[in-house]
Design brief:
Rossmann fold; binds S-adenosyl-L-homocysteine
Amino acid sequence: MTASPAIVILGPSALATARRIQALYPQAVIHGLSGRVEADQAYDDFGDTLRSLYRSDTPIIALCAAGIVIRSLAPLLANKGAEPPVLAVAEDGSAVVPLLGGLGGVNRMAREIAAALQVSAAITTSGELRFGTCLLDPPSGYVLADIEQGKRFVSDLLGGESLRIEGDAPWLEQSKLPLAENAGRTLHITTEQRVAQADELLIHPRTLLALVGSADDLAARIGRAFEQAGLAQQCLAALLAPQALMTDKQLAQAAADLGVPLRFIGADEALPPQLQHGENLQLLQAASPDAAQTIGCPRGRLSVIGLGPGAAEHMTPAVRRALDEAQDLLGYETYVKMAEPLRDDQVRHSSDNREELQRARHAFELAASGRRVVVISSGDPGVFAMAAAVLEALEESAAPAEWHAVELEVLPGVSAALATAAKAGAPLGHDFCLISLSDNLKPWAVIENRLDHAGAADLAMAFYNPISKARPWQLGRALDIVRTHRTPDTVVVLGRDIGRPAEALRVLSLGELTAEMVDMRTLVIIGSSQTRRFPRGDGGKWVYTPRSYPQP
Ligand code: SAH
C-alpha cells in the first residue's frame, strides 16, 4: 500500500469503529462530516470527498452503506486504470466489504480489518475464493513479473487448468490451488530474467543483494550486473555497503531511487554466497526474502520532534510520520502518551527522569544500533526542550564515532507561545522575546538582568516555566521588574493547557495579574507598550500588537 488510508465517517456512531481501524493503520486520517462528528479532519460533502480521495490514489475505508460508496464513485469507474483499495465497513464493525482495488491489495486490507474487528471479510473474488489466495498479489518479498500475463494465467486456472509449482512459494502451502505433477501450467518462483511463456506465471523472490563499494554511477552498474548474470532486477532486496559509507548521501539517494533499503555490514560479518562480481560490485544470493532482510544493519535515525501544544491537528505531518516510523520513543511519560496512537511493537521508554542529557545519550545508543528513534518534546523541540540536549550530548568528547554516523534530524513544532498567541489574536505581532523563568539551569541574576533589558527594550515577552512548587517566588519577582518598565494597563495573556482538553485563555492587565493565577501549565504573555485589546463578537477579547511602532 502506498498512501495511508482515509477512514471516512458520517456521524458519531461510527467513531469507535473508526478508531479501532486507525489503531491498525496509525497513519490513517479519520474524515468526519462537519457539524455532525468531531474527527481528525472535517469535510463538507461526502461524494466530493470520496472522489477526490479516489483520484489521489488514497485507500478509502468508508464506514457506511456499500451503496452510498458505489453511487459516489460510479462516475469515476469507467476508465479502469490503477485504483486504490476501497472498502465499505459497517459502522458498528460487524461487516467488512472490499469493493474496489483488487490489485491494490483490497482483499488483504479487508482481512486485516476484519481480523482486528473479529469478523470475517466478505471476499467475493473468484480466484481468491476458489484457491484461497490471490496469485496476482503475492506477499511482501515477492513480485509478480507481469500483471497482464498473470490475469490470463488465473483465468486459465479458473477455466479448469491445473498447475505445478517450481521454486519456493511457502505462502502457497495452505492454498487450494489445483496442483498436479503433469499440469499444463507452471508457477515459477525464480530470480531468472526472462519473458514469461504463455503457460507459466513468473514470480520473482526478493532474495538478491548488491554489495557495493561506492555510489558512483550505481544504478547503471547494478543494471549491467543483473543483465550480465541473467537475473531479474526486481529480485533486488537491498543494497549492502561497508559501514564507512554510512553517511554517504549519494549512496542513500541511489538506494532511494532504486526503491530498496540500504544496510551496512561490519568487517567480519558473514555474507551469503556470491553470484556475480564486477565493476566494484557483488551480487549475493540470500536463502529467502526473509533472510535477505536480516543481513547488515540499517543506518540508525534519531528524530527530535515537537508534538505542538497538544491537539493532533496542530502536529505537523512530518512529525506524525516520524512517530509512525519510530521503533523507540523517548520522553516524559505525559508527552509519550500525547504521541498516541502508537503500535504495540513500538518501544516506549517513558520516564519521569529529568536528566535530559542522559536521555539524549540513551537515544544515541539506540540509534547507533540501527534503530529508528524519536525523542519527544511538547511544542517545539528547540524551545526549552530536548533538541539542545541532544546536540550537547553529541558534541561531548566522550561521544562515540558511531553517534556521529546516525541520521539526526530536528522536526519543528508549534511552540506554546505561538499557540497561545494565536488563540488570543496576535500579541506577538511585533518584536518579542521568549524567556524561561526557571532558574534550574541558569542563575536567577541572569533572568533578572534579561527581564530588565527586555522591559527597557519594550519587547513583548512570553514566559515559559513561569512558576512551580520548587520555584514559588520567582514569578512575583519577575513581575516586579516588568512593572518598573510597563504601566498597569499593559495587556497580559495567560494560556493554560492550550490545545488540550482543559484549555483556558485569559486576557487581563498587568495591574490585575497575580502569581496565584499562574501555574506550570501556563504560558504568560506580557504585551509591549503598544499591545492592544478590543471586544470580540462572542464576548471575549482580541489582543494584538500592531505591525508598526510609533516614530520617535
Ligand atoms: N518545548 C515547549 C516548552 C517546554 S517548557 C514548547 O515549545 O512549547 C514548558 C513550559 O511551556 C510550561 O511550563 C508552560 O509555560 C509552557 N507550555 C507548554 N505547553 C503548553 C500548553 N499546551 N499551554 C500553555 N503553556 C504550555
